[in-house]
Amino acid sequence: QVQLVESGGGLVQAGGSLRLSCAASGRTFSNYVMGWFRQAPGKEREFVASISWSGGTTYYKNSVKGRFTISRDNAKNTVYLQMNSLKPEDTAVYYCAVSAGPVQITLGSMYAYWGQGTQVTVSS
């Protein structure tokens, strides 16, 4: 059974940092794109970042470029999202997901497996 478990969310002041982790189990995802999405209250889920199977290519939502960094450790079957200079508008539930498509895919429907999410709250 495939399982993705996110951790690292929490409450942080604006300008602060958090590092999210997503541990995958049930199969090896080293050949797949992994991504992060988020959903704020009353809003649709949106793409945040993705990373190729090798880690050599990354793709970001424009509003997080320069502040967020996605990385992965295939030996640990884990993907990370380092979030710096956080803003109140970054407040959302963050989800990791796995896709067999290209790294540029931002549509959630192209991601086959999803975690349960972790809450990130940024206070002003």
What separation lies between the terminal Cα atoms? 40 Å
Q: Estimate the global geometry from the Cα principal axes.
A: globular
Protein structure class: mainly beta
Q: What kind of sheet is the major sheet? A: 7 strands, mixed
Beta strand %: over 45%
Oligomeric status of the shown chains?
Answer: single chain
Number of helices: 0
Secondary structure: helix percent: under 10%
Low-confidence stretches: none
Number of strands: 11
Q: Encode the helix/strand succession as letters.
A: EEEEEEEEEEE
**Average pLDDT metric:** 95
Radius of gyration: 13 Å
Molecular structure report:
The chain has 124 residues and is mainly β. The chain is 0% helix and 51% strand. It has no helices and eleven strands. The strands form two sheets. Strands 2, 4, 5, 6, 9, 10 and 11 form a seven-stranded mixed sheet that branches. The protein is globular. The model has no long low-confidence stretch (mean pLDDT 95).
What is the structure about, briefly put?
The chain is an all-beta fold and 124 residues long.
State the main characteristics.
mainly beta, 124 residues, single chain, seven-stranded mixed beta sheet, four-stranded antiparallel beta sheet, globular, 11 strands
